[in-house]
Predict the structure.
Amino acid sequence: MSPLVLLSFVAGYFLLLMLVAWYTSKNATNESFFIGNKNSNWMLVAFGMIGTSLSGVTFVSVPGTVGANSFAYFQIVIGYFIGYLTIAYVLLPLYYKMNLTSIYTYLGNRLGIKSYKTGASFFILSRILGATARLYLVVKILQDIILSDLGIPFWATTLIILIMILIYTYEGGVKTIVFTDTLQTTFMLTGLIVCIIYILHTMGLSFGDAINALSTHQGEKGAYSKIFFTDPSDKLFFVKQILAGAFITITMTGLDQEMMQKSISVKRLKDSQKNMVSLAFIMVVVIFIFLFLGGLLHLYGAQQGIMAKGDDLFPALALNNMPAIVSVIFIIALISALFPSADGAITALTSSFCIDILGIKRRPDWSEQKQKKIRQRVHLTVAFIFLIFVMVFHWVNDPSMIDVILKLAAYTYGPLLGLFTFGILTKRSVKDKWVPLICIVSPLICLGIEKLTPLIIPGFKMGPELLVVNGFLTYIGLLMISKKIKLEE
């Protein structure tokens, strides 16, 4: 299909987003931008968070991993389910009890101002790295299939997309994103289902036939449909994967301002908990569908003689070996997966920097108008930083972005996990000035552990469980600089 035709569909999709943004940002204030005036509908939040949680990386990388890892990713998804329930019944009650706008305010109240700033700083670092890695993957695909043929360079493609995101989030923030994420999740899931139906129809398979085929065809780790791996030395060992999945969700959702600012924008705690529990069940089903699609793509690719693997497989088949209408649906679904992970991240980073670093909520001398100007400048600055980091990932050009994102999460979310765990589980105070050092040293020790472990235990590889190790080291470090809180008599 002509790149100009595909580009016209992208432009039409963006105009639809603009219409939604215009309608939802009427009379928007700073509170609308930060937490949607605490008046978001929990069902819309739950559905929209599917798109935010999945992103373009899940859309492309998860199906692409089936050839190498079979359905092993579903082990992590079981952990996700445990993590979502933990968020619903441990973290959300805490956030609502304290009526937080930024969840890192908890660290300030519990541990001290240095801990507060450290937690917020690690979130900012984590979200910049994770969101730009996700953004890079989808921009790369759009560049390869549409814009490179039109002579538009990669940096310009990234800049155009970031400007598009800025335009529709500039005023409404969370208030707008709750609605645009719902729209985009709908398009993404529609694309997923359409591709599955097309492949099943083309290959003459029923759902049952497809499951049987996936159980007999062999990938690098055995049958495509193999879920559980029992070798303790393997990075796919089910205990490590489930444990890692639970902590990944607790940290990347429950301790992440981007994800939580949508949940705490719901008026009542019970409704916010409904949102999180619903998300837990939905994610299990949706990720299984992604893995099922991945298996079908590998079967269909072998039939078509396609050599593409990993992140390249889905785009190669959808754009070159499927009808034009399916290609268009794929493109719309892909950018629908792109925008929720990028727009929410830019908005959350703006919120966190304004509230946690600049202290905008603690400055009664700043008028609403002055706060708005500062917030808008920060919003533009964050978008510029995104441009720089996407270009860095473009120069590095790693073949599997989902592995990159999980590795980055292990190093940058670990200190957050340790900080919140210490605050919630203990009744001890810390020497606040030493907290930043503890949170920097712990990831460095993890780096040493990751490099040395294969030398000490041949064949053993650290996987996503490195996040748990990082959090544990941070927790131990905080214990070492803490003392019991003296109760007032």
Q: What stands out?
A: The chain has a mean pLDDT of 81.
